[in-house]
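Sequence in, structure out. Go.
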Amino acid sequence: MIKPEAENGARVLIVDDDSELCAMVGEYLGKRGFSVECEGDGARGLERAQGENPALLILDVMLPGLDGLEILRRLRAGKEASARVPVVMLTAHGDEVDRIVGLELGADDYLPKPFNPRELLARIQAILRRVELEKGETDEETRPDAAKCLRAGDVEMDCGARILRCAGETIELTAMEFDLLAALLNAAGQVVTREALAQDVLGRKLLAFDRSLDMHVSKLRRKLGPSADGGERIKTVRGVGFILTAQAAP
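Output:
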């Protein structure tokens, strides 16, 4: 388990042309055990992310030349290890479109500028903890539920192989989407609170005005499509959380 204040020298690459922000974040994370490097050029940032394989990438949307969304698109389209590098997107305050597109392209989380460095640290820690847990779960000898399957209606999830089938078709999900759907499948037919999902899936508390879960749920809805009767598979319970409407199979 990664300790909150000692990240074992985890390498973080910041791709942002704001030199003052890079210096501030670099100093803050550096004092907490990270090895931080910065790059201000988009094309060079992509090259470094692909060649240096950092533990995590902090990526600004607005960059000269190659913007952050295009960098993310090219990373996720690759077949090398860098295609799976965790990414935190930095977006302009109030620009929800960039956040939605970033999450659709495979970003793990986002922060609108300006942000508190402590909040960035919390997001990074949560993502790296999840990455460590996923690595540990690949060893079937230490994972007694590796062969576990979750089913609800025509949705079937193979937890060991991390494969999802919906209406007989295999659906590609990001790691975040898979974990979110697994949490809903585990409680199929019951409401799962936003707070519980934030802790289990995002690995952190949900802050006021944080739309991360809503955006991930929205992506899941689009990928799964409507249920056999044309209704929503995942319903929002206003002020509480979400519910997978199909009942769990025995």
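Check: The first helix runs from residue 19 to 30. The chain has two domains: 11-136, 141-244.
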